[in-house]
Amino acid sequence: MLCPPEELLQKNQALSTTWQRYQALPSFESFVELAVSINSFTEFLIDKGVTALHHASHQLEQVTLALFNKDVGHPLPQAALDDLNERLRALTRMTHAHASATAGLVEREQDLHHAASQAVRLGQIWVITDAPAAWNSLQTQLGYFGLAAGFIPWETAIPDSADVSPLLLLDMGTLHESAWRPRIQALRQRFQMGQLIGLGVRSDFEQLHEVLGGGCDSCLLEGTPPHAIIERIMELNERHEQEAFRVLIVEDSKTASHLIRRTLAENQIVSEIVNDPRQTLTALKQFNPDLILMDMYMPNCTGVEVARIIRQHNEFLSMPIVYLSGETNVALQVDAMRLGGDHFLTKPFNPVFLNTIVRSKIERYRALRRSMYHDSLTGLLNHSSGKNTLDMMLSGIAHEGGFLSVVMMDIDHFKQVNDSYGHPVGDQVIRSLSWLLKQRLRRHDILCRYGGEEFLVGLPHTDAEEAFAIMDRVRQDFAKIRHPYRDTHFHATSSAGIATYPLHQTGDALIKAADAALYRAKHGGRNRIQVDAD
Ligand SMILES: Nc1nc2c(ncn2[C@@H]2O[C@H](COP(=O)(O)OP(=O)(O)OP(=O)(O)O)[C@@H](O)[C@H]2O)c(=O)[nH]1
C-alpha cells in the first residue's frame, strides 16, 4: 500500500515542530526529543516503504546521533546548527514533493481496491518467471497452506498497486545471465522492504555473487525441491507475525516515564508505567511484559530492591531488567547487575541506544521462552504448556461465558510413513501439518504438539459445528499436500476428534472426550472428523 500523503506530511510537521522547539529552547532534553522525533520519522518511512525519503532521514539521524557526544554542548555550535537546519529543510522539501507525486496514485490505488472483485488479484508472493508451468505445483501447494502466489514474466512490469514489501521468487534460470544484476537491482530499488529470493542459482561463486550482489536476500540453489521452497516461505511468514514487544517502566518521575514511553511507542514498542514501585508485581501479572526498565533511585525503595523482590517469583526469574540511572559509578553498576539486573543505561539516555538494547534483550528473552514452552520440531506449544494454556483459556471462558472447542488431531498410519520413507521424511510430514494449522487458525487459538504425530487445538468462542467446519477444511487440504520422497511423492491423511465446553467442564475432561472421539474417527475408517456428542 502507498503511504497516504496526509499522514506523511503530518509526521514531517511533527519533526519540524521539535526542531523549532529545540531552536527556541536549545537544551539537552529538547535535543533528545529531536533525536527521538527523527528516529521515529525514519522508522515510519521504513514501515510505510517510503524508500525515496528513507536514505535522507537515516543520514540526518546519523548526524544527530554523532552530536550526542559529551564534548558537544547546547546550544550546538553554529556550524552544526546550520548543517542540521539544511538537512531538515531538504528532507521537508523532498517530503512535500513525494506527497504531491503520490496523491494521485493513492486515489488510483483505492479505486483499484474497490474494483478488486473484478480484477485478477496477485498474491503477496510473486514468482518472476518466463516458465510459469514449472511452478504450478508450488503454487498449488502454497494454496493448501492458504498462501496465494502469482506469476509475472520477466519482461512485464509489476503493477503500481503492488504491495511495498512482497515476497519475490526470481526464477533466474529463465533469464539470460547478463541481465541478472540489472534486473535484480531494479527490483531491489523498487521493493526495498521486500524479500527477494533467487531460485535455480548454481552453487558456484560467480552466480551467487551476481544474485546476492544485485540485491537478493538469499538464494535457493538449483535443484531445491518445492517443499524446501515452501519451508523457506513459512519461516519468513512466521518472522512477520511477531507480536509487539512489551515493556514495563518502573520509574517514579512522571515526566521521565512518559518520555521513555513515547520513545518506545515511536519504535512500535508497547509499554505500561508504574510510578509506585510497590505496584510492580501486580503490573507484571496483569501486563505480562517482555522486559522491565527500572529506575535505580525511587522514594521508598531502590531499583535493586525491587529487582530482588521480582526474582523471588519463579515465573519472572529470567525476565530481563534494564536499570536506568544517572549514576556512572562502575562498582555500583556491577553490584546492581549481580543483584538481578541485566543491563545498565545511564540517564539522560540516547533514544536509539535505548531502543536497540530493549529490542536485543527482548529478542533473546523470547528465544529463551520459545525453547522452554515450544516444541523444537514445529515451533508449536509443547505438551505441558499447551495443557496449561487450555486451562487458563477455560477459566476465562467460564468467567465470560461462551463455547470452547478442543480438537485432538492425529496423522493416520504414521508408523507406515516412517517405515516406508524414513524418520526424517516423517518429521517433514509432521511439520507440514503444523504449518497448515498455523496458517488456518486464528492468532488466539491454542496450537500444541501434544505427542509424536498428535496435535491439540483449542478454539475459543467456537461451538462444535463451527469447529468441525474449520477442522474438516484442514483435513481436506492436508490430504492434498504432496510429500516428496526421492523422485516421487506421497500423500498422508489425518483424523480428529472434537469435544466442546460447556458439555465438558475441565481441560482434562475435554481432552479425554476429544481423544475418545478421535478413537472413533480412527475406527470409523480414518481421514475423518468425529464430534464427541454425535
Ligand atoms: N518421524 C517421527 N515419528 C514419530 C515422532 N514421534 C512419534 N513418531 C512415530 O509415530 C508413530 C505413531 O504410530 P501409532 O501411534 O502406532 O499410530 P499410527 O501408525 O499413526 O496409526 P493410527 O494413529 O492408528 O492411524 C510411531 O511409529 C512413532 O515412532 C516424531 O517426532 N517423528
Low-confidence stretches: 106-123
CATH class membership of the largest domain? Alpha Beta
What small ligands are held by the chains? guanosine-5'-triphosphate
- Termini, distance in Å? 47 Å
Please summarize the sheet with the most strands. Answer: 5 strands, parallel
Name of the CATH homologous superfamily of the largest domain: Reverse transcriptase/Diguanylate cyclase domain
Secondary-structure class: alpha/beta
- State the shape: globular
Overall helicity: 40-55%
CATH topology of the largest domain: Alpha-Beta Plaits
* Domain tally: 4
Task: Kindly describe this structure.
The protein is α/β, with parallel strands linked by helices and 534 residues long. It folds into four domains: 5-114, Four Helix Bundle (Hemerythrin (Met), subunit A) (Up-down Bundle), CATH 1.20.120; 125-240, Rossmann fold (3-Layer(aba) Sandwich); 246-371, Rossmann fold (3-Layer(aba) Sandwich); 383-531, Reverse transcriptase/Diguanylate cyclase domain (Alpha-Beta Plaits). The chain is built from 18 helices and 17 strands. It has helices at 5-24, 28-48, 51-66, 78-114, 136-144, 180-190, 205-214, 226-240, 254-265, 280-287, 303-310, 330-338, 351-373, 383-400, 414-421, 423-440, 464-480, 507-523; strands at 125-128, 149-152, 167-171, 195-201, 218-221, 246-250, 270-274, 291-295, 321-325, 343-346, 404-411, 446-451, 454-460, 483-485, 488-490, 494-501, 529-531. Helix 1 runs antiparallel to helix 2 (28-48), helix 2 runs antiparallel to helix 3 (51-66) and helix 15 (414-421) crosses helix 16 (423-440). The radius of gyration is 27 Å and the shape is globular. The structure holds guanosine-5'-triphosphate (GTP). Guanosine-5'-triphosphate binds at residues 410-415, 418, 423, 426-427, 430, 452-453, 522, 526.
